């Protein structure tokens, strides 16, 4: 499959409209439509249905979309690796569920002091992959959270972040200053798909596997499940700041271990640039923890996010 055609397909799928996709791609609409037709001919099926508001994916298109994104990402990663042999390398940092996001600027500044000219690209992974694509070679270093299966990985702890319960704003729990995780029992929970790392699923569900509720693959889908389906669930405390919106309340939770923020990398792989990035993240977290202790004693633990 032609990568240019896949770029066009993803743009139309994400915009839901050929005209908007053409503007996004800086391409006239006739060539865009032609590339989609050629891709459909190559695959032997229709990928879009025309609707009054634009275009909607067919079942075949829905299957192709994640595969196309994966192929395009791998192609870009291959380009970066090849370019890295003749030019400055771009480190790819994978992030899961906002882990360590607040220390990004400080970490980047620390990295540039250690490695002037170093460049980093952030890749936000779905919450279904706690390694952020590390095992598939999509990232150089993962900024993530325990627990998950760490076989074959080297993990470096950075700190802890407390949890909050995301609940509908009109729920009786929404007005509470704090709740115990057991109080979420018997409520519909947002859940991760089957096949997701078992330890990761169990930690975030904090309930029996057969607990009812919608299956989600991203933080945004978690929030939609709360807003539209009345589900509840656990999120890192930082979500209360990053994802605040009408209709959803975030209540601090006790009775469940805090989220442990870590960096992870492939075991046995020596890479001075990755070492420098991991050291910069650690330094930024430690500086944040020290500032937190000075500003509000007891609020932060080992670099945990401010509640």
Automatic annotation (TrEMBL):
Family annotation (InterPro entries): LysR_HTH_N (IPR000847), LysR_subst-bd (IPR005119), WH-like_DNA-bd_sf (IPR036388), WH_DNA-bd_sf (IPR036390)
UniProt similarity note: Belongs to the LysR transcriptional regulatory family.
Coiled-coil ranges per UniProt: none
Record key words, sorted: DNA-binding, Transcription, Transcription regulation
SUPFAM superfamilies named among the record's database cross-references: Periplasmic binding protein-like II, Winged helix' DNA-binding domain
Domain HTH lysR-type: 1-58
Name the UniProt record assigns to this protein: LysR substrate-binding domain-containing protein
Keyword presence, DNA-binding: yes
Region listing for Disordered, in residue ranges: 285-307
The keyword Protein biosynthesis is assigned to this record: no
Origin species: Streptomyces goshikiensis
Signal peptide: none
Domain of life: Bacteria
């Amino acid at each position: 499959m032609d990568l240019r055609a896949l770029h066009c397909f993803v743009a139309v799928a994400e915009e839901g409209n050929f005209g908007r996709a053409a503007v996004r791609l800086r391409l006239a609409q006739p060539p865009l439509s032609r590339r989609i037709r050629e891709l459909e001919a190559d695959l032997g099926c229709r990928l879009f249905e025309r609707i009054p508001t634009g275009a909607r994916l067919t079942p075949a298109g829905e299957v192709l979309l994640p595969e196309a994104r994966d192929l395009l990402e791998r192609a870009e990663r291959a380009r970066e690796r090849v370019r890295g042999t003749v030019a400055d390398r771009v480190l790819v940092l994978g992030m899961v569920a906002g882990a360590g996001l607040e220390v990004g600027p400080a970490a980047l500044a620390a990295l540039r002091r250690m490695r002037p000219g170093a460049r980093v690209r952030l890749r936000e992974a779905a919450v279904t992959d706690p390694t952020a694509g590390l095992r598939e070679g999509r990232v150089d270093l993962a900024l993530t959270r325990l627990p998950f299966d760490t076989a074959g990985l080297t993990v470096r702890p950075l700190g802890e972040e407390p949890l909050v319960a995301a609940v509908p704003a009109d729920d009786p729990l929404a007005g509470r200053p704090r709740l115990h995780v057991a109080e979420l029992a018997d409520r519909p929970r947002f859940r991760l798909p089957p096949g997701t790392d078992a330890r990761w699923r169990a930690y975030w569900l904090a309930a029996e596997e057969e607990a009812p509720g919608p299956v989600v693959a991203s933080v945004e889908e978690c929030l939609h499940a709360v807003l539209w389906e009345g589900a509840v669930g656990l999120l890192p405390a930082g979500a209360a700041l990053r994802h605040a919106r009408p209709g959803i309340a975030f209540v601090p939770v006790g009775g469940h271990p805090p989220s442990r923020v870590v960096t992870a990398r492939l075991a046995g792989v020596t890479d001075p640039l990755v070492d420098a990035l991991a050291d910069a993240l650690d330094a930024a977290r430690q500086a944040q923890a020290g500032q937190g202790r000075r500003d509000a004693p007891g609020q932060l633990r080992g670099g945990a996010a401010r509640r």
